[in-house]
Predict the structure.
Amino acid sequence: MKNYDKNYLISKSREFGESELITRLLLNRDINTKEEVEKFLNSDENDLLNPFLFEQMDKVTDRIIRARKNKEKIVIYGDYDVDGISAAAYLVIVFRKLGMNVDYYIPNRAHEGVGINRNLIKYMTKRNTGLFISVDTSIASVEEIMMLKKNNIDIIITDHHREAKEIKDFNLLTINPKISKNYPNKNLSGSGVAFKLAEAVYEKAGANKKILYDYLDIVMIGTVADVVPMTDENRFIIKKGLYNLRKTKIKGLKYILNYLRINPENITTSDIGFYLAPMFNALGRVDNSKMVVEFFIQEDDFKIFAIIEEMKKANKIRRYLEMEIYNEIEEKIQRLNNPKYIFMKSRKWHSGVIGVVCSRISIKYNIPVILVSIKNGYGKASCRSIEGLNIFDMLKETSDKFERFGGHDLAAGFLVSEKYLNQIEVYLKKRLLTANKSNVEKVLHIDSELSIEQINKNRVLNINRLSPFGLDNQEPNFVDREIKFVSFSKFGINNRHFKGFIKKNERMISVIGYNLGHKLKLKNINKRYEIVYTPAFKSVRTDLFIELKIKDFKEKIGG
């Protein structure tokens, strides 16, 4: 926990016009001036950057406006994760509102994998496509470009990943904050980049931008699911998107929030990340993401309900597959002595779910994890790393062996021919061992001491002014002592989580602890603890109550 000089805190509190608690939270987030406080707490569309700061945005919008004028067929090609699906759905909706002739294509993860293939070319030539726009994905090979060029299809690439390799022979029109020299915000999601493209197109067409903001709940879902920093333009996108869910224009979202029993008046980024995004992801992981784009643009009630049923089925299958792989890996880890990393492969694993398992194992043990699913002569890998250890750069060093690879510093993936897999395995194991000599200790940053006796609705509302929470703007963590667990029950796969009640003096309050089920035993009841927690609103139908998310706890010695 950072400590501040009492007088400094009082003077900053006066300067900010905020309580000492809120001032401390702001200072902890490196917000040090009144101007920064204003911008952070009251982000609006004035904080959005000019989309024409992207070097090629002028040419890109000219080409799209030409396609609109000539009634050319435009095909939006999206990646099959939630971010790619959201980006594709958003552009289809807002471009159609401008009278454009737009279709979309999402590859099937299991049968097509990533990249331009014959199915896609067939789909586009059949529709006499003139313009191809990628969202949340780039083109990785000259062959793919040639396939499109041969069919007289113009190409626009929009992406936000670090480029695995640049194809210099073709002057491709590209919008990507990671490679832009002029665009200051490097942390847009794929759907965030799609929003900037739409903004520029509407500006050039002289159209009313209100419609772009009306559908920001779709962009928000992709942004939250892709775990990008909750700073800069992303704050406006997420705040506005969450607000839109109260009266969403997307029929399917009304129905799915109802099914998940989430009150849209009180929805948070956690609800999106834990409940909504996995439902969308499940279809792409074990079935067909194309259906999720349909879910966003569909107006027919019967068809929407049919898609939700498919999502529910796919989600059950995903959970089952995940649990099987997770248990198998856990069993193997128990036989290892404090591993510095995990590299495992199997012919039995479903490639669509190893990413989730990868994340869970990496978070639990705080080590880099690489899992490879082998099928049809290829190894498909998901990689997750830890702070200070850049997995993307490691892969880049040996990228000549990959069919394709991509991702971010802490989360990446690759596709490799089986004949090179052993070579890659030896190389990565060696790199991970030498790079991870010292054990990186997991640290919980605490914002302030705050007794649970002082928690009330007004205080939680005040704290929530700093939301949306996520990467680079973590949920505030508070510490309190002399706490007793009075009752609890465990839930989730392998009883991973717990919920129940804690007590301090006369104050009793509801709690939930994710991934902490293993730490809480019946013998813990009535002992005294120090806890780290985040207060949050929980709504059941129309009732609103406060629940504390327990981040960690330790027994008071002699308590």
User: Anything to note?
Assistant: The chain has 19 helices and 16 strands. The longest strand covers residues 478-491. The chain has a mean pLDDT of 89. The two ends are 23 Å apart (CA to CA).
